[in-house]
Design goal:
Number of domains: 3
Distance between the termini: 107 Å
Strand content: 5-15%
Number of strands: 9
Oligomer: single chain
Strand order of the largest sheet: 1-2-3-4
CATH topology of the largest domain: hpI Integrase, Chain A
């Protein structure tokens, strides 16, 4: 006997699943959990059979289930598996989604510190979404993706372009695994990016020549009248501490211990998820005291000039570095001279050349965690060496800027 709406609504779960048949292989499965699922058991010659799930009741009504059942029976009569057709239809609908839908899902699954995730979200929203949300995610070719990255690289943000190439590769890799695309158009994009212009400096991101570093430090300490004193203090502190730019930007007063001369960056703020204690040289303390007069009542050390207590953006310091004047041309250095992240490379290179312990340098850069330090040093010894190294590094920078008489 065919099913009725009344019989379906009155059906109650029991201690095991049971079926309520409607005819032609269509039935409603009443599960022990109380859910009711429409299913169709089909058969095809020779000896092919399967079960096609139409959906749940009451989302799918009796009338809708019969309509879907009729369409599925027509497919079976033609020798086509209705489940495969449904899967293809779902995949096509997913493939019509925009890139941002899948990128957000991918980011949500990554195990990142909150600040790292926030920084990545901002970069992806700015650099990828505007172009890649213009059409379905599966319709982009490798050449089209390369054009997007090339535009990023051409504006002087080659490192950002390389990072975005990595994001594209990993998001599209998931799409490939899900069966939404037949190949990964983002595979190998980083290698296809234009090489730096070798007629200029071979490495745009940082300086390793002490003479060039001397000019940079002098200009940082001699800012234009239009530059915010907060920005100037941030620039002065960056080469002293060589932290990641976000750790400068989001530095909080509560994390600074002036008595112990240390900055403690919480694990939640670190890329590796490990707390980092940073020894503060005398010069770093003086700079923090200087900016404290301006922002000491705010949570963040370096806040925007227009108020609201918001931390400065990464572009604030990078743009300030680009505006520095080249003594040889008397014009701004512009894009490609030095980035706010470049101070880390500069310090790493020069400190290694100056003979400081590699473990102390790497730990200060937060490249290795406390529990991975080689057995050569214990924590206390490393901290002592880092305190000494950070003060001597600050003195070295001071001496570059203002050489002491012999």
């Amino acid at each position: 006997m065919p099913l009725t709406n009344t019989a379906i609504s009155k059906a109650k779960p029991t201690n095991k699943d049971y079926k309520m048949t409607d005819g032609g292989g269509l039935y409603l499965l009443i599960k022990t959990t109380g859910s009711k699922v429409w299913k169709y058991d089909w058969r095809m010659k020779p000896n092919r059979r399967g079960t096609y799930t139409l959906g749940n009741y009451p989302e799918i009504s009796l009338l809708e289930a019969r309509e879907q059942h009729l369409q599925a029976r027509k497919l079976v009569a033609q020798g086509t598996n209705p489940t495969e057709v449904k899967s293809q239809r779902i995949l096509k609908a997913q493939a019509d989604e925009r890139f941002s839908h899948f990128a957000k899902n991918w980011i949500a699954k990554q195990n990142m510190a909150k600040t790292t995730e926030k920084d990545l979200v901002q970069r992806v929203e700015k650099n990828l979404y505007p172009d890649l949300d213009k059409k379905p995610v599966g319709s982009f070719t490798t050449q089209e993706l390369l054009k997007v990255l090339t535009r990023i690289s051409d504006r002087g943000a080659r490192e950002t372009a390389k990072r975005m190439a990595g994001v594209l590769r990993r998001v599209y890799s998931e799409l490939l695994i899900m069966g939404l695309i037949d190949y990964n158009p983002a595979q190998g994009l980083a290698e296809l990016l234009p090489k730096p212009n070798h007629r200029q400096k071979s490495n745009f991101s940082h300086i390793t020549d002490p003479e060039e570093l001397k000019l940079l430090i002098r200009q940082i300490h001699n800012p234009s009248n239009r530059q915010s004193p907060v920005t100037t203090c941030a620039l002065k502190l960056m080469p002293l501490l060589f932290l990641r730019p976000k750790n400068i930007r989001f530095m909080k007063w509560k994390d600074i211990d002036f008595d112990q001369a240390t900055l403690t960056i919480p694990a939640s703020e670190m890329k590796a998820g490990k707390e980092l204690k940073v020894p503060l040289a005398r010069q770093a303390i003086e700079i923090l005291q200087e900016v404290g007069v301006i922002t000491g009542k705010q949570p963040y050390v370096f806040v925007t000039s227009h108020g609201h207590g918001k931390p400065i953006s990464e572009n604030t310091t990078t743009a300030a570095l680009r505006r520095l004047i080249n003594p040889a041309t008397q014009k701004p250095y512009g894009t490609g001279y030095m980035t706010s992240h470049g101070f880390r490379h500069t310090a790493s290179t020069l400190l290694n050349e100056m003979g400081y312990p590699a473990d102390a340098i790497e730990l200060q850069l937060a490249h290795i965690s406390q529990d991975r330090v080689r057995a050569t040093y214990n924590k206390a010894q490393l901290m002592e060496k880092r305190v000494k190294m950070m003060q001597e590094w600050a003195d070295y920078l001071d001496n570059l800027r203002c050489p002491q008489p012999a």
